[in-house]
C-alpha cells in the first residue's frame, strides 16, 4: 500500500515538457522562469494551477501526452529510466522528431499557505547503444532571499549543498558525491529534509498520483485481482478498485460507500458482500427497484460514475487525480452530476488536485476559462498550449460569464 500522511498537503503549480512526443516545448501553469538551472523560454505566464485544471483540444493535439509526461517521470521514479522508456516503445518512439536537445521535464510544487516552493527537473538522454539514462537531475528550493538546499546530479555526479542568500549557483563550488546509478532518480534515494517537508510531499506525489481511465465493460466481473488505485492508462479492473477500498477502508467501508451513494443520482444504498474474500460482490439499491441490483446488471455509465466518485470521496485522496475523458458513457444527467461533484471537490480543503482531459464542449463550458488549457497543433505539427483566459478572444470579464463561452470563442477556431 502507498504511504499517506503528507499526500495532498502540497500542490503542483505547474510543469513543462521538452522533446517528449509532440511536446517539443510546452509549459502549463507556473514554470519557474527564474529557476537558475533552466533556460525558460516557454513564454508561459506565472499563474499557478489550482484545485481543478482542464485540458481540451482536438484529437492528436497532445493532451494525453501531457498526462503521460507526468506518468513517465513517475515511472522513472518507481522503476527507472530504462523501464519507463521501453514501456513506451523506446527512446526514438518518444523523442520529438526533428528536435534537438534532451527529453526534459520540470515541476514546481508548493506547500499550501507558505512561501516555500520546490522546483524539480530531470533530463533523459540515450547512449549510442540506445540505452536511456538520466543525464541531469536538479532539485532546488525557492524561499525568496533565504538560503536554499540544492541537489544537482549530472553525468553521475551528485551534489547537495546550501546557497548563501546572494550566492549565484554558477559561481559556487559544488561538493560532489559519487553517484553511479544512471538509471534511477536521485530523488527516490534522497532522504527527506526535516526543515523542508515539501520534499516528502513531492516524492509521494510521484508515488501516489492517480490516472483514471476506466473501461467498464471488461470490468464487470469481480474476479481475483490485486488491490490498486486506478492508475493504468489502459483501463482498470473494478475488482482491483473494490479490493483496494476493502483493504484501505476496512474499518469504515460502510461510511465510504454511504458517501458515494449519497453523491450518485438514483442510488439509495450500495452493498458489499465480502464473505468470499476471493470474489467480493457489489450491489446497488436503485430508487425505482424493490431489491438490490448486482453490479453486473448496472449500466456502464453508472459503473463508471461509481469509480469516479470512489476517488472523489476518499478521506485520504491521491495528491493528483487525472480523469481521461470522463464524459464517455455518461448521459446528460450523469455528466452534470459528475461536474457538480468535481466542483464540490474543488471547494473542499483536501489539498488534492483534479485534472480533467476532455473533448466535450459541455464539460469545458462548465469550467472557468482560467482553469482551462487549450491544446492545438502548430505549423510544424508540435503541440501548442494556451490558457483560455489568456486568449485575445476575451475582451472583457463579461465574456467569462457566458455559459457557452468555450463553444462561442474556441469551437469556431477548430
Short descriptors:
414 residues; 2 domains; single chain; 6-stranded mixed sheet; Rossmann fold; 8-stranded antiparallel sheet
Structure write-up:
By secondary structure, the chain is α+β, with helices and mostly antiparallel strands. The chain folds into 2 domains: 298 residues, 3-Layer(aba) Sandwich (Rossmann fold); 108 residues, no CATH class. The protein is 25% helix and 26% strand. The strands form 3 sheets. Strands 2-1-4-5-6-7-8-9 form an 8-stranded antiparallel beta sheet. It has a 6-stranded mixed beta sheet with strand order 10-14-15-3-16-17. A hairpin with a 5-residue loop joins strand 6 and strand 7. Helix 7 crosses helix 8 and helix 8 packs parallel to helix 9. The longest helix has 17 residues.
Fold topology:
Elements: E1 11-20, E2 23-29, E3 52-57, H1 63-79, H2 81-86, H3 91-94, E4 103-110, E5 117-126, E6 132-142, E7 148-154, E8 157-163, E9 176-178, H4 186-189, H5 198-208, E10 210-212, H6 238-248, H7 253-263, E11 267-273, E12 281-286, E13 293-294, H8 300-313, E14 320-324, H9 332-347, E15 353-358, H10 361-365, E16 372-377, E17 383-387, H11 405-409
Parallel strand pairs: 3-15, 3-16, 10-14, 14-15
Antiparallel strand pairs: 1-2, 1-4, 4-5, 5-6, 6-7, 7-8, 8-9, 11-12, 12-13, 16-17
Helix pairs in contact: 7-8, 8-9
